[in-house]
Amino acid sequence: MMYVSTRDKKNMVTAAQAITHGLANDGGLFIPQGTPKFSIETIKSMINKSYLDRAVMVLSGFLTDFTEDELKQAVTSAYTPEKFGEVPVPLVQLGNNTAVLELWHGPTSAFKDMALQLLPYLLTMSLTKTGETSKIVILVATSGDTGKAALEGFANVAGTQIIVFYPSEGVSDIQKRQMITQEGNNVNVFGIEGNFDDAQTGVKEIFSKASIRETLHKNGFIFSSANSMNWGRLAPQIVYYFSAYVDAVKAKKIRLGEAINFVVPTGNFGDILAGYYAKLMGLPVGKLICASNNNNVLTDFINTGKYDKNREFYKTTSPSMDILVSSNLERLLYLVSDENDVKTKERMDALKTSGIYEITEAERNAIQEDFFGAWVDEIEVKESIKRVYDDYKYLMDTHTSVGYRALIKYRMLTNDAAYSVVLSTASPFKFSDAVLSALETSERIKGEPFEILHKLADKTGEEIPQRMLELETAPILHDVVIKAADMENTVLDSLVKD
Ligand SMILES: *Cc1c(COP(=O)(O)O)cnc(C)c1O
Hints:
By secondary structure, the protein is an alpha/beta fold. It contains 23 helices and 16 strands.
């Protein structure tokens, strides 16, 4: 299967090239030409397979220039019991027709690990396949979780250097601590004065600037991306939709073939796009519920067909979703416009110059067939954390709570009672202060981050992830904060030759 740029179909590459480069030179995103199809029999055959074997099946459909053995080796190295526990993605039942898919049992306690533990293996193999000998510079803009997960995945990986930019005042205390304590001989971490969109825009600009690419090339470096703009990041996320489905069948919660809904706390639209791909592949999915926080640009887009980022940016208790420009939406626009690269480019150009674009009614209707948009305010986030804890003794983080509450809204508006899976994207301990203040129905909880972490554990009896406990005493290694305008120079200054 070949991949093309969403902004120029003539720009065609293999999966290994798409993974190596991350982003197309024309600024577009690589997207597979077509979708592998799984029959119900194939899906049935997954029921008694391990997560690793399910992953190999799904990935083989997309990464056709990788052998099954290579994929097996990659997933076996990535999803070890040491890093993910015995069950990498548990499906936890909440009542009869709702379940939570816990995607945060990896080393950084966020769902990003599902892809970013695997990506370095896929990338290293891709380099061999493409004959690329330059050192890969992974540039990351992060709203909190991608940064740490990418650092953890790429630290000390030979032939790579990783540079992470995070909004210095826009991530949780634990997220920040995770990043600024990162060890590794090939890692750089910078705070920027600005929000996530500033960081992401900066990274995209560096990527698409020919002059920087040339400078890098001459010096033996090339850029790649660990953001969900990289297909190698997206493909591993398709796996857990299948895995959740067959686990629900196995637990006799649904019949094989029955359509179920997935609720996805959404920021950059990567995770939910992976769900859409699962549906395109033949997984019986009803609606994909796109859950947003106060930054509800996607809810409006799904409802009206008009994307308008010219609006106030809110800092919320679910910072990984504080995003106004959702990069992966570009892939959906490409798909629903009948793979129209010219139209997609026009829309992305309009987004850049005016902050607005609008799709046709037919395209909007097509999107509404598969997606439902709902947004959740800060009071509702807290209420739902408390209610779910009181009712089920189940502790959700703030992002998962956005998803859960969006599902409640969806059910009220539609009366659709289908079995629904809420993707749980982070450990509640990652956002301890917001979670604890929700349980104690107080305003903001005060205190040192680690004091709050322990308080939450004491109150709930839940266990703090070991890796998070270790942060308390880890030395701070990266404390530089720069202006967003200085990102380009910072990158050039940071490059290290081996
Ligand atoms: C990244 C992230 C999201 C949003 O995922 P996207 O793929 O960017 O839509 C939601 N929740 C958490 C905890 C995250 O880290």
